[in-house]
Design brief:
The complex is a heterodimer of chains A (about 90) and B (about 1000). Chain A has about 90 residues and is mainly beta. Chain A is about 10% helix and about 40% strand. The longest helix of chain A has 9 residues. Chain A is globular, with a radius of gyration of 15 Å. Chain B is elongated, with a radius of gyration of 38 Å. The chains are: A mainly beta (about 90), B alpha+beta (about 1000).
């Protein structure tokens, strides 16, 4: 079970959180301009990296705030914690 | 009280407290402190169980968790322990113990006759043999299942009581042996908090022979000094009788602590097992190693035991498990058992060593005591009936053979470090040639391994090594280690050796009596057979022969099999790989995992403010998510259908009231609320006026329906959105996610108010009269309170929100009052409605009423692959703005009716019969019942107002099939016929609700 640092509440057990998956591109402002393939890519495609990626977590059993962390999907090491609104790094390890 | 195998005054048992217990009905004695295993051995019980497949006689092989044979069913007081190892439970007064896998008795087991047919019992036998004819497999399976498995469950409820505890510490040390002590020593000096876990009832159970195990007194005194320091330190916490179940990511681990006393089950405060969940800064594995068995014919006979287990039985329990003792070994470490026995004046008959020479000091000591040692020999076969009595040995070089009498054979084939925790936490292993074992490859994230678990089997070396490893760790953490008091006198190390002994395995490959895994009865023959059939990968081999899949998880056998497979395939052990150990390491009761979270504590139950009234009025409840909702109100002279019919007709003809409090209610507040709702819903909200309501579907960005409800504009920048009863939390999370992760610029706040408001929905032609009686100040006429609008008022000074919407198709007012006044208002409603023959109705009637009108239930008529276009709600989709799902729905595919299933109505030919839920809809010509289908039935009821049955269904290209006949096939393959209609059956013009 992961130990996740919420940007507001500090380190908590994974059971307090909901997983939001790997971060994706911002939703296009005018989706009608995209081709079917481009739109499908936005909706369905994820990178699914074996290694370091950035993902979203929701502190559903706590402050109910979303934030991002940088995690190594192979070792589960969490290296950075981000504030979502401004992508400001709240905590950085090594 | 005869204890034929018990030494005087030895061990940690309390001789002043004898305990009597029953093994298979016969009365035996032991002492307080005895495990079941040691008590059985002290009474001279060698045959303890039968093996699972061939029902061969088996005895105790070890003293700890790795015990493969002695699995028992134990009753103490009113508690039952199922599949408990004899080594893992203490004896208690009047404990009743039964072995498993034998009939009619352990000594005379008729199942053992199966052995005559053993040439058929090859790996995969059952699946190869009983597959034809295929239809009979179900019948065979029932018979086969009866003969399989371990213990038997008796009662419905687990009689044990469980508890969960959470804790954290700086360093979690698994084990309390010498290496654990020497690791803790510097850690405590640096101020760390330490939690030590010991599966035994004593700290350092392997160090009971401390008087002579060290080479000199300086070492002994130094060890006693640091041990006392560690054990008495205020930062040390020790959990005894505790097994580690798993080691997980981020230094999280779970432990199972057994109670040492058996409580009465009416004492609810004391648990029998505690599940510990520990988060630590660092995990250190000092769990030692497991001694591997030797391979020879009949190597599973009772009386053959692991050498270090014999040491434990002597030192801890004062039990010598037999006479005429012989040691059969390939390493120097196992000679400790010989010296342990010598301390109590017992000389073993001989040592058979497969090597040509051994460590000089050991040899001198043996010669001094006149103990015969036979070098360069191996055991070919053991003989005995229910216990070993003779062995047949052969010179490895000359193949000259001799026979020796023997009643207790100690075997040692090297050691397997406990590396399962390392693998659990994602680590890998490397084969280490010198000590013939797999050792963990440590990384930044893996636990630290010390002592036997790191492949360091020498006592002095492991004490020194562990201390240095601790120092190194703290140095890496940049802690000041200059002032630490070091460990002295642990300089020189014995050069003990282990030889790789497996040369003669290959010649015995066809023997069915050489067992590599005792618990699953896997023999050399089975391994060879499986390899010949092509199962050369370790995990394929394991699944085919089942080795290592027992309760012991192959703790001693796995490595032997890896080495064996390496030899057969002529590869190195590293190329074979290792078993992917998964949690739990030791068996865990399901009860311990659930703890107290069972029965009514399993999931919260939500009740509305009017629940007690429903109960008093004979409501039959159904579960909707966590909610309890009345399904219908039973009357003594009615069956369910009659009750539901009565409720439906009341709503259609006079007035019916339903408690709709479970509807999800979320308030949306803020200057950007309109923009937010415009994105969330397909409808347009820009021009919506205060006091108006709108029904809308909620779509995900893939264009699929996932919730629906009514949105009311309470005020400028203040909306109330309704969700389905089951979807309230999901929708709340969903909206919150979009606001926080995508649309930071929206100034919008969400507030869940489901629990704050009780919703009482008054339906039926007479509802206007009732509403007027309740609220005299409000004009309920169509002109001043039109359909799909909202008004605020008060009732006896209680704030009230009234929505004129309809889910029944009738004139309806949904009245929301603060939940604390819910029951009060409900009572008032019934008081004033008495003259109108008011009837409460439940969810079943609600479903029929809505289905008669063709209103969908999300999740019943839709399934996550249904779009608004499919249910005929294309008009709802705004063309002038973006919304979630819009782009997806613009795809041509969704507009091609031939490709999509549409929601249609179905009128069965037999108007009295209700079609089965989920039945398949097929063309009339289609006679292949299992072939392609047009769609399926989603909702199906009997309509009391129309006096006929009807249904809703999703049918491919259904819009073009209106008035066509179709074939309906339910899951029992019963056929019926129905006509497709538009999905509306009652009041098709929609005049009644308006």
């Amino acid at each position: 079970m992961l130990l996740i640092e919420c940007i507001y509440c500090g380190e908590r057990d994974e059971t307090e959180f909901d997983y939001g998956g790997e971060i994706r591109d911002k939703r296009p402002v005018d989706p009608d301009n995209l081709s079917d393939i481009e739109w499908a890519d936005f909706i369905f495609s994820r990178k699914n990296i074996n290694g370091i990626h950035i993902e979203q977590w929701f502190h559903s059993g706590g402050c109910r705030q979303w934030f991002n962390i940088q995690r190594n999907t192979y070792t589960n090491e969490i290296t950075k914690v981000f504030n979502l609104k401004n992508q400001q790094i709240i905590r950085e390890k090594n | 009280m005869k204890q034929i195998n018990r030494l005087k005054d030895v061990g940690l048992i309390d001789r002043s407290k004898p305990i009597e217990f029953y093994f298979n009905g016969s009365k035996l004695y032991g002492f307080k402190g005895d495990t079941l295993a040691s008590a059985l051995l002290s009474n001279g019980v060698y045959l303890t169980s039968r093996s699972i497949k061939h029902h061969r006689p088996r005895g105790l092989f070890t003293h700890d968790l790795s015990e493969p044979n002695s699995i028992m069913q134990v009753n103490v007081k009113d508690k039952e322990f199922i599949n408990v190892s004899a080594t893992d439970i203490y004896i208690y007064p009047n404990m009743k113990v039964r072995n498993i896998n034998s009939w009619p008795s352990l000594e005379f087991d008729l199942y053992a006759l199966k052995r005559i047919f053993s040439k058929f019992f090859q790996p995969g036998f059952i699946y190869k043999t009983f597959m034809w004819p295929r239809l009979l497999w179900g019948f065979y399976e029932k018979l086969i299942r009866k003969t399989k498995g371990f213990g038997k469950l008796k009662s419905d409820d687990d009689s044990l009581r469980y508890e969960k505890k959470h804790s954290n510490t700086d360093i979690l040390i698994i084990g309390t042996g010498p290496s654990a002590i020497s690791f803790a020593y510097p850690a405590l000096q640096l101020g760390c908090k330490i939690l030590m876990v010991e599966q035994d009832s004593n700290v350092s159970p392997t160090m009971l022979n401390i008087d002579y195990i060290f080479k000199n007194n300086d070492q002994k005194n130094e060890f006693i000094k640091i041990k006392n320091y560690v054990l008495k330190h205020s930062n040390t916490k020790i959990l005894l009788n505790t097994k580690v179940s798993s080691v997980n990511d981020h230094n999280f681990s779970t432990l199972i602590q057994n109670s040492t006393i058996i409580n009465d089950s009416n004492n609810i405060y004391l648990p029998d097992q505690i599940l510990w969940k520990i988060r630590s800064e660092k995990i250190v594995i000092a769990a030692g190693s497991v001694e591997r068995p030797m391979l020879f014919d009949n190597n599973d006979l009772p009386g053959i035991m692991s050498s270090n287990s014999i040491s434990t039985y002597i030192n801890k329990f004062g039990v010598i498990p037999g006479k005429n003792i012989i040691l059969y070994t390939n390493n120097d470490y196992s000679y400790q058992m010989v010296f342990d026995l010598l301390q109590y004046g017992i000389k073993i008959n001989a040592v058979i060593d497969v090597r040509k020479n051994i460590h000089k000091e050991i040899l001198n000591k043996l010669e001094k005591n006149n103990i015969k040692i036979i070098f360069d020999h191996e055991i070919i076969k053991a003989f005995g009936n229910n216990c070993i009595n003779e062995i047949y040995i052969s010179s490895i070089n000359t193949r000259k053979k001799i026979t020796i009498k023997c009643n207790l054979l100690a075997v040692s084939n090297g050691f397997s470090p406990v590396n399962q925790f390392h693998i659990q936490s994602g680590g890998s292993l490397k084969y280490f040639d010198k000590t013939d074992c797999f050792i963990p490859v440590e990384t930044k994230f893996s636990p630290l391994h010390i002592g036997g678990s790191a492949g360091v089997f020498d006592l002095v070396e492991s004490i020194k090594y562990s201390y240095l490893k601790a120092i190194k760790m703290f140095d890496n953490q940049k802690q000041d280690i200059t002032n630490l008091i070091p460990i002295k006198n642990f300089g020189s190390i014995d050069k003990y050796t282990i030889s790789k002994f497996r040369s003669s395995f290959l010649s015995k490959m066809n023997s069915k009596n050489v067992f590599v895994d005792y618990q699953t009865d896997t023999s050399l023959f089975d391994i060879n057979y499986a390899v010949k059939e092509g199962f050369v990968f370790l995990d394929h081999l394991r699944r085919y022969t089942l080795f290592g899949t027992g309760i012991d998880q192959g703790k001693q056998s796995n490595d032997n099999i890896i080495f064996l497979l390496a030899d057969i395939l002529n590869l190195s052990p590293d190329q074979i790989g290792h078993i992917k150990s998964r949690p739990p390491f030791s068996s865990v009761n399901f009860g311990a995992i659930s703890g107290r979270n069972n029965n009514s504590f399993f999931d919260p139950i939500r009740r509305t403010s009017i629940h007690n009234w429903h109960e008093r009025n004979n409501a039959i409840f159904e579960n909707v998510g966590q909610w309890k909702r009345p399904l219908y109100y039973a009357k003594s002279n009615e069956n369910m259908q009659e009750s539901v019919n009565r409720e439906c007709l009341a709503v259609r003809n006079s007035v019916g009231v339903i408690d709709a409090s479970t509807l999800g209610k979320i308030e949306v507040v803020g200057p950007d609320s309109v923009d937010f709702l415009n994105m969330i819903y397909p409808n347009k909200f820009s021009s919506m006026k205060t006091g108006k309501c709108k029904y809308s579907l909620m779509l995900n960005d893939k264009g699929m329906i996932f919730d629906d409800g009514v949105i009311a504009k309470l005020n400028e920048n203040h909306y109330l959105i309704h969700t389905t009863s089951g979807g309230a939390t999901t929708v709340m999370d969903w909206l919150e996610q979009w606001l926080q992760t995508e649309w930071h610029n929206f100034n919008v706040t969400l507030r869940s108010v489901t629990d704050q408001w009780t919703t009482i929905s008054i339906n039926g032609p007479k509802s206007r009269i009732l509403a007027s009686k309740l609220f005299k100040n409000i004009d309920f006429s169509n002109e001043s309170f039109s359909f799909m609008s909202y008004q605020e008022t008060s009732f006896d000074n209680i704030p009230v929100r009234i929505f004129r919407v309809s889910f029944s198709g009738e004139l309806c007012f949904e009245i929301n009052v603060p939940s604390n006044y819910g029951q009060y208002f409900w009572n008032k409603t019934f008081e004033l409605g008495r003259n109108l023959s008011i009837v409460p109705y439940g969810t079943e009637a609600m479903h029929i009423l809505r289905a008669e009108k063709g209103y969908i239930i999300v999740g019943q008529d839709t399934d996550g692959s249904v779009t608004p276009i499919d249910i005929g709600a294309i008009k709802m989709l705004s063309k002038s703005k973006d919304f979630l799902g819009k782009r997806s729905l613009n795809r041509v595919f969704f507009h091609d009716n031939n490709n999509r299933k549409q929601l249609v109505g179905l009128i069965p030919d037999n108007s009295k019969k209700i079609i089965k839920d989920g039945a398949h809809i097929k063309t009339l010509q289609d006679q292949i019942l299992s072939g392609d289908i047009l769609g399926h039935v989603t909702s199906t009821y009997f309509s009391p107002i129309l006096n006929k049955s009807f249904a809703l269904g999703l049918v491919k290209n259904g819009y073009s099939m209106i008035d066509q006949k179709v074939l309906i096939v339910d899951m029992n393959l019963n056929k019926s016929y129905a006509t497709i209609t538009k999905p509306i059956f009652y009041d098709k013009e929609g005049l009644k609700q308006k």
